[in-house]
Amino acid sequence: MARCYVELKNGKADGVLAQDETGVYAGGFDARGDFGFNLIHRPTKTWAKLPEWEDARLVSTTDPEYLDFIRRCERGTYTTTTPTEIFEIPGAAPDVIRQAFERYA
Predict the structure, then answer these.
(1) pTM for this prediction
(2) CB burial string 55-93: b at 16+ within 10 A, e below
(3) What is the pLDDT of residues 23-44, one digit of tens each?
(4) Minimal CA–CA distance to 79: which of 67, 88, 70?
């Protein structure tokens, strides 16, 4: 089972981030239309702070809170996409990325 969310641009999937026990992956289509994905965060411990937490916490990059931190807090003012809610799809993260893209095609 993998957790993921889709970055939407004009109501269509622009990118997907998926998380499983092997880390966090980002996937999408490049300028040529080729589909691909990359491991962007290997399993490790890191600090994260969600707005509702009083202090930062040490979390694993495989924890659900870490994916929520990326979705809600690691966004710059230049971001032109809108994230969906996090949802689960059976399978490994790389496979889930394609399924999530198809869901929001």
Answers:
(1) 0.91
(2) eeeebbbbbeebbbbbbeeeeeeeeeeebbebeebeeeb
(3) 999 998 888 989 899 999 999 9
(4) 70
